[in-house]
Amino acid sequence: MRQAARRATPRRYLMCPPAHFKVTYSINPWMDPAKPVDVPLAIAQWEDLRDRYRALGHTVEELEPRPDLPDMVFAANGATVVDGRVLGASFAYPERQAEAAAHLEWFRAHGFEHVHEPTHINEGEGDFAVTSSYVLAGRGFRASPLSHGEAQEVFGRPVIGLDLIDPRYYHLDTALAVLDDTTDDVMYYPGAFSPGSQAVLKRLFPDALIAEEADAEALGLNAVSDGLHVLLPQAATGLFQPLRDRGYEPIGMDLGELLKGGGSVKCCTQELRTR
Ligand code: ARG
Question: Class of the 12-271 domain?
């Protein structure tokens, strides 16, 4: 296994506290409205994640949560920002649609000049992942394939469409994580992708870290990396040593309450790529 010298770079993240988090509807297989959610615990777990980012030297901005939008804690879905350019979201399910405007409003109020309101359905970084060479784009459950061309036009970066086939991995960020966005290092779970998309991933990322099913099921691919530290669900135990072998420092997080909504570390974290 190659041992690269990894380096953390300071990041800017947008997060939304789970003050109004609940599971009252089900739009992915993880969501069961019959299961109670412990909101104070969800808040404590979320604050742990936020504080961990800050302790690592990153900037965390906070979006005001809205009582009518229980999934708003999954801030990654609200937009995608690359080179300071913002592509707004348009949600697949009506229950979340109003989150898109809340995000756009935040970007306009915070000095972002290039803000593009989308024509086609895309759920932000849920289905867009940014490496040094590409924007990887999931489709099959949420994002419209037409949003891929739209993203390519807005960002001026090549967009690679990937077909998701397993409903448990309904967003790209539940099946693939970018580990180093300067060298195109990624980890993913092949079983979430169609055979053709698996072949594309193999061709683009021959040295990728390949995750086992048990770690994918713990939502271990829903991870955030700053180039050195990789924050991921602590239950994805099989990923820790492979990450260390590649020179990363894995940090296990417990976001068990938010898992009831079908999300974890990455879903709660939108990266503002303003560098
Ligand atoms: N309940 C949310 C939904 O189904 C969870 C979104 C998780 N976010 C993510 N980036 N995968 O839309």
Answer: alpha beta
Q: What is the rounded distance in angstroms from the CA atom of residue 28 to the CA atom of residue 180?
A: 29
**Could you identify the residue written with the tokens 């990728």?**
208
Q: Which residues line ligand 1 (CB under 6 A)?
A: 27-28, 31, 71, 74, 76-77, 96, 126, 171, 173-174, 261-263, 267
**What is the ipTM metric for this complex?**
0.96
Note down pLDDT in tens along the chain; length 275 residues.
555 689 999 999 999 999 999 999 999 999 999 999 999 999 999 999 999 999 999 999 999 999 999 999 999 999 999 999 999 999 999 999 999 999 999 999 999 999 999 999 999 999 999 999 999 999 999 999 999 999 999 999 999 999 999 999 999 999 999 999 999 999 999 999 999 999 999 999 999 999 999 999 999 999 999 999 999 999 999 999 999 999 999 999 999 999 999 999 999 999 999 97
Pairing, β 176-180 against β 185-188 = antiparallel
Per DSSP bridges, beta strands 185-188 and 270-271 are: unpaired
Q: Is 268 a catalytic site residue?
A: no
Mutate to test the pocket of ligand 1, among 15, 26, 28 (most ligand atoms within 8 A of CB): 28
Residue 76 CA, closest ligand 1 atom number: 10
Task: Please count the other Cβ atoms lying within 10 Å of the Cβ belonging to residue 274.
Answer: 15
Domain boundary assignment for the chain: 12-271
What's the CA gap between 170 and 92, in Å, rounded?
Answer: 12
Mutate to test the pocket of ligand 1, among 25, 46, 73, 74 (most ligand atoms within 8 A of CB): 74
pTM: 0.97
171 catalytic residue (yes or no):
yes
From ligand 1's centre to the CA of 4, what distance in Å?
32
